[in-house]
Amino acid sequence: MLIWIIPGAVLLLIALVAIGFSRVNTPRRVGIEGIENQDVIKTYNRIIRWPQFRFLRRLVVSEIKRRRPKGTLVDIGCGPGYLIAVVAKSLP
Question: Which H or E run includes 88?
Answer without folding.
Answer: helix 82-90
